[in-house]
């Protein structure tokens, strides 16, 4: 089975998409067929052993529409042109331009027609049309002004009558029949006028001169065209999120070839090329920085406004902006393999699928137009049967035809899905299907993996404890890093990384060696060893400290100098800064929150306690996580599983909704229903909130589409005429039909302004800081922390507050930092050892002024 995309032409309403879908589903060898009215496309899975692509095209053609296999938009080298304008946006823009031209000319001729027909009603007459003798000329002039409007809007007639002949009537059929009925009525009246004029029957001429329907035919087509224009303009905006991303990729890139900088088209950049990116330039492909430093604005992909610092080894992505700096980077992913291209592909996949809530509209759309035709016919016959004249009966029948709107039904779901997934992509949230988007709002339980989801997934140094008078914490860290620098163990790398971040430098270590449980080396003539608690040598103070750190969920290493324990360096997989906020938000929404981990119970409970999780399942194997998910489902819960997409693959596939933290891995994209590009747990909350907003929007659209037709059709049929005197002019019906579609699309566009609460929470950082501090500090020191509020002058932008945050976070003893640009202050949680002088000096070094420090 292969998955294919086809572009479909000629569809104008939900009845059309239902007709195409039914025709293709009838083919043996096609399955999972989805036709999208908004995008004018079709996706399906094809068994090429039973069926060919041409067979699909023939089936669509036989149904009265056109189809062509979508171009994969790749060049011979296989590199996708991501900087090329999004094809769907191009199609919508072309549709908008053509609709606008037709509308302007239709309005011109319609305005002339209205002038000569309406002004006499207010007493303004034209002498060359005045009187019964000149009425035939007046009628013929109306006919001449109406003909250009019919020609301009011929698509309604060609598509409408073609569908009618093929026994698959659609919205165009209704419009064409209504306009044709009005036009034929006018022509019949014109012939009667000419015949009566020849016979000298001027009373008959005058009667028919006031019952011409040429203006109705022209106005029906023009008003429907006006609605189509507004609809096309709104539809063109639904692809803004993705098309704006595509437009951000530069057309060219600067690479080093043969030792020289050369500017080449972005499509020609190959994996392994060295890129040169300078301040103010956008990055053309994904890569890894090999030289230089820079601040990169990644808001286009992640939605985060603060620039991210990049240095050697940092990853960069296509479409991001170099805020400041100068780097050389090695291209690692180009064309269709870039993060941007994957984002666009996933969004396209989601918007091409169909949400379960749309099935009712699909079923109704398939029979809607035939039912409307039947209602129009019954309306005419009933009114004639009860004694109404033919003109009145025909007017009501035409009103029924033109007020009925299958468009609104067909657009209700895809517009909301299109805008919602586009907005999600701008927030760094990728829904793989419309079904996932809908199901995400219905979850009742959230199960979290620990490593890489709640925590960062890599150990960092959390504590340095000195038990020798001749050493300071900085000295101990430097010694430990100098020994561990030659080790590949994750804890060793964490210690070395901490030393470099604190700029301690390293000693030259000789005679490095390792044995089970420890490593050793010689520094400045002394022997140093680092390892587990067996090196403590029954030292009571050190053993007690090791126990305390272990209770806090940390892994502690003992440092020995000439076989004498002199200190401890503790590491832990630290909690992500937004984990506590995300869990708080889930619980506030009434969801059950659980954490799964393969770690030991003590560590798991320490982390769960810090972030506010009450239910923990520890020491569980990856395969057993799926069993926990199933057990939770059996208890009646709809489960959202959040993991890193690799070890959690079985659980992600088992859950009602699987959500992968971090994009770019094949396993994450394959197993999860949703991918969080930024690897932030708060984005999972945003996905839940956005899903609810999209589902509410779809239900609103469907309600108004059904409500409109339920009220409009009876009024147009004259149901209330005998009791309330209500009837509907066909021109009003045409305007109402047009505006119903416009209202549905406009309502969906409101989702572009969706803002997740998790990104606007003012109290989130303090919540996280408290949880983080509680986890990081040893148990006996938790009562020794204090809060300080530092008033700062001179901060003017997020870059300034970011610099202050970074500087204060690096200080030993500072456990949390919350800098407010608006309040011009920094709130920190720190140990008693952090003095005001140190804080003031740190901020002053950044060229900001400290106006006060308050201790709470």
What does this structure look like?
By secondary structure, the chain is of the alpha+beta class. 49% of the residues lie in helices and 21% in strands. The protein has 30 helices and 28 strands. The strands form five sheets. Strands 5, 6, 7, 8, 9, 10 and 11 form a seven-stranded antiparallel beta sheet that branches. α11 runs antiparallel to α14 and α20 runs parallel beside α25. The longest helix is centred in the last third of the chain and has 35 residues. The two termini are 66 Å apart.
Main beta sheet, described?
A: 7 strands, antiparallel
Quaternary state reads single chain
- Cα gyration radius (Å): 35 Å
- Give the CA-CA distance, first to last residue: 66 Å
Q: In terms of per-residue confidence, which ranges show pLDDT below 50 for 5 or more consecutive residues?
A: 73-86, 760-783
Structural class, please? Answer: alpha+beta
Return the average pLDDT rounded to an integer: 79
Q: Which outline best applies? A: elongated
Strand percentage lies at 15-25%
Layout of strands and helices, then pairs:
Elements: E1 2-9, H1 14-25, E2 30-36, E3 41-46, H2 53-62, E4 66-69, H3 87-118, H4 135-152, H5 154-165, H6 171-199, H7 202-209, H8 214-238, H9 240-248, E5 252-257, E6 260-265, E7 274-278, E8 286-297, H10 299-302, E9 308-310, E10 315-316, E11 321-333, H11 339-352, H12 359-385, H13 390-403, H14 406-426, E12 429-431, H15 434-439, E13 445-449, H16 450-454, E14 455-466, H17 473-484, H18 490-501, E15 510-515, E16 518-523, E17 526-531, H19 540-551, E18 555-561, E19 564-575, H20 579-588, E20 592-596, H21 601-611, E21 615-617, H22 622-634, E22 639-643, H23 649-654, E23 657-661, H24 666-671, E24 674-676, H25 682-716, H26 721-724, H27 730-749, H28 764-776, E25 785-793, H29 798-809, E26 814-820, E27 825-831, H30 836-844, E28 849-855
């Amino acid at each position: 089975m292969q998955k294919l995309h086809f572009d479909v032409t000629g569809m104008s309403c939900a009845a059309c998409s239902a007709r195409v879908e039914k025709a293709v589903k009838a083919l043996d060898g096609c399955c999972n067929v989805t036709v999208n009215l908004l995008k004018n496309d079709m996706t399906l899975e094809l068994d090429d052993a039973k069926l060919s692509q041409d067979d699909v095209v023939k089936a669509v053609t036989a149904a009265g529409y056109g189809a062509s296999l979508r171009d994969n938009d790749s060049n011979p080298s296989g590199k996708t042109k991501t900087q090329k304008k999004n094809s769907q946006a191009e199609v919508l823009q072309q549709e908008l331009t053509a609709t606008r031209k037709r509308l302007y000319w239709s309005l011109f001729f319609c305005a002339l027609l209205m002038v000569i027909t309406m002004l006499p009603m207010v007493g303004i007459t034209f002498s060359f049309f005045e009187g019964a003798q000149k009425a035939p000329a007046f009628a013929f002039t109306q006919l001449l002004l109406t003909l250009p409007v019919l020609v301009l809007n011929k698509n309604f007639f060609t598509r409408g009558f073609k569908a009618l002949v093929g026994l698959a009537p659609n919205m165009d059929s209704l419009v064409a029949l209504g306009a044709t009925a009005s036009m034929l009525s006018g022509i019949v009246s014109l012939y009667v006028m000419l015949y009566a004029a020849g016979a000298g029957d001027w009373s008959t001429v005058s009667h028919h001169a006031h019952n011409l329907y040429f203006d109705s035919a022209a106005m029906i087509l023009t008003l429907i065209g006006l609605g189509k224009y507004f609809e096309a303009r709104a539809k063109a905006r639904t692809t803004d999120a993705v098309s704006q991303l595509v437009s951000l990729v530069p057309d060219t890139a600067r690479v080093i070839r043969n030792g020289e900088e050369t500017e080449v088209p972005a499509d020609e950049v190959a994996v392994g090329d060295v890129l040169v990116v300078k301040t103010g330039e956008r990055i053309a492909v994904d890569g890894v920085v090999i030289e230089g430093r820079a601040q990169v604005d990644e808001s286009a992909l992640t939605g985060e406004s603060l620039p991210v610092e990049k240095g050697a080894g940092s990853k960069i992505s296509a479409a991001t902006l170099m805020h400041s700096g100068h780097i050389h980077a090695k291209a690692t992913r180009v064309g269709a393999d870039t993060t941007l291209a994957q984002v666009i592909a996933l969004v396209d996949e989601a918007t091409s699928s169909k949400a379960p809530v749309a099935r009712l509209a699909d079923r109704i759309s398939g029979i809607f137009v035939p039912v409307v035709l039947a209602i129009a016919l019954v309306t005419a016959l009933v009114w004639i049967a009860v004694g109404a004249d033919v003109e009145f009966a025909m007017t009501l029948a035409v009103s029924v035809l033109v007020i009925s709107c299958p468009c609104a039904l067909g657009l209700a779901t895809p517009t909301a899905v299109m805008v919602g997934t586009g907005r999600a992509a701008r927030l760094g949230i990728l829904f793989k299907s419309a079904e996932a988007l809908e199901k995400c709002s219905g979850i009742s339980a959230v199960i979290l993996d620990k490593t890489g989801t709640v925590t960062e997934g890599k150990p960092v140094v959390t504590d340095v404890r000195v038990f020798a008078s001749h050493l300071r914490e900085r000295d101990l860290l430097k010694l430990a890093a100098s020994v561990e620098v030659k080790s590949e163990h994750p804890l060793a790398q964490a210690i070395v990384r901490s030393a470099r971040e604190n700029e301690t430098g390293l000693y030259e270590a000789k005679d490095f060696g390792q044995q089970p449980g420890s490593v050793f080396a010689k520094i400045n003539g002394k022997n140093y060893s680092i390892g587990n608690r067996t090196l403590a040598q029954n030292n009571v103070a050190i053993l007690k400290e090791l126990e305390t750190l272990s209770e806090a969920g940390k892994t502690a290493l003992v440092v020995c100098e000439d076989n004498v324990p002199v200190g401890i360096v503790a590491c832990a997989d630290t909690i992500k800064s937004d984990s506590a906020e995300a869990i708080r938000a889930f619980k506030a929404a009434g969801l059950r929150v659980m954490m799964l981990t393969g770690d030991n119970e003590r560590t798991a409970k320490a982390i769960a306690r810090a972030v506010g999780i009450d239910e923990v399942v520890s020491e569980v194997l990856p395969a057993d996580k799926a069993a926990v998910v199933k057990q939770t489902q059996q208890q009646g819960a709809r489960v959202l599983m959040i993991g890193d997409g690799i070890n959690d693959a079985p659980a992600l596939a088992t859950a009602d909704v699987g959500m992968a933290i971090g994009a770019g891995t094949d396993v994450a994209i394959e197993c999860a229903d949703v991918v969080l590009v930024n690897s932030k747990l708060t984005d999972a909350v945003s996905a839940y909130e956005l899903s609810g907003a999209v589902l509410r929007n779809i239900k609103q659209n469907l309600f108004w589409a059904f409500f409109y037709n339920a009220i409009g059709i009876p009024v147009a049929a004259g149901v209330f005429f005998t009791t309330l005197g209500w009837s509907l002019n066909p021109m009003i019906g045409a305007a109402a039909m047009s505006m119903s579609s416009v209202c549905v699309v406009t309502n969906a566009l409101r989702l572009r302004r969706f803002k997740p609460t998790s990104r606007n929470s003012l109290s989130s950082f303090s919540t996280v800081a408290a949880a983080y501090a509680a986890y990081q500090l040893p148990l006996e020191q938790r009562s020794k922390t204090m809060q300080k509020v530092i008033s700062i002058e001179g901060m003017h932008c997020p870059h300034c507050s970011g610099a202050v945050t970074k500087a204060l976070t690096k200080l030993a003893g500072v456990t949390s930092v919350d800098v407010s640009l608006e309040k011009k202050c920094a709130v920190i949680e720190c140990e008693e050892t952090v003095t005001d002088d140190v804080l003031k000096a740190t901020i002053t070094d950044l060229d900001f002024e400290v106006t006060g420090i308050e201790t709470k």
